[in-house]
Write a structure and sequence with these properties.
23% helix, single chain, globular
């Protein structure tokens, strides 16, 4: 994943997927490894992109990188400094990647991270939260929504799409 050729192929496949699905009446959210725009430090990011009408319409990089249990993301990825909202068909949206949505200070007695990307995105104007999640060791495993995430969205008075 750190090889430039892998990152080039990943970007090419993302653009191919956009072109191949341009005719669909829906947008796609795709998780992938991306290239970090930095001169020093780690040069890959854990990313998610929104594909719509043949274009990569939006990209988000993961901010909170777990290094517990089976996770060692901090070893490989550069964390995002901040996250962004985007407009989609008249709606202001936020896209989070797994851990970024699971740091609710109302839920955790002792949070692992000081920042709460969901809260920051809501303060930036997001009205809908889309959260993509996956299990690193179980292909096809269906994940239940984290216990605190629906409560977090309800407290912030926002909709949640959990994938």
């Amino acid at each position: 994943m750190e090889k430039p050729s892998f990152l080039d192929r990943t970007e090419a496949e993302l653009r191919r997927l956009a072109a191949d699905t341009a005719h669909l009446p829906v947008a796609l959210v795709v998780g992938h490894v991306g290239r970090a725009d930095v001169v020093a430090g780690k040069h890959v990011v854990n990313a998610a992109s929104v594909i719509d009408h043949g274009e990569v319409a939006f990209r988000q990089h993961k901010m909170l990188l777990p290094t517990y249990d089976v996770f060692d993301e901090g070893r490989y990825f550069l964390p995002a400094d901040r996250q962004h909202i985007w407009q989609f068909r008249g709606q202001t949206n936020a896209l989070t990647i797994c851990e970024d949505a699971w740091n609710d200070k109302q839920y955790w007695e002792r949070r692992l991270y000081q920042r709460d990307p969901v809260e920051e995105l809501v303060h930036a104007g997001a009205k809908v939260l889309i959260s993509i999640n996956a299990s690193p060791y179980h292909m096809g495993k269906r994940l239940p929504a984290p216990r605190g995430l629906p409560d977090h969205c309800q407290a912030l008075r926002h909709s949640l799409w959990f994938m």
